[in-house]
Amino acid sequence: MNKPDLVMPGGDLERVKIAYLYGADAVYVGLDKYSLRKAEVRFSIPEIKESIEHAHSLGKKLYVTFNIFAHNEH
Question: Is 72 contained in some domain?
Fold first, then answer.
């Protein structure tokens, strides 16, 4: 039987690290350009890269989410 992953949100790099400390198997983050909650997203591309490297060093996962509606003009 497969064990479900404990997935937690990470609003910034510090929260990503804290989520792993508190037992997260994976953390999800977003980029402001692709998020409906732009005010809550505080990630740059270099910070996403650092988060991925940190996750992999722990044997954990990091998901980058996109939760905005695509339109033809975009």
Answer: no
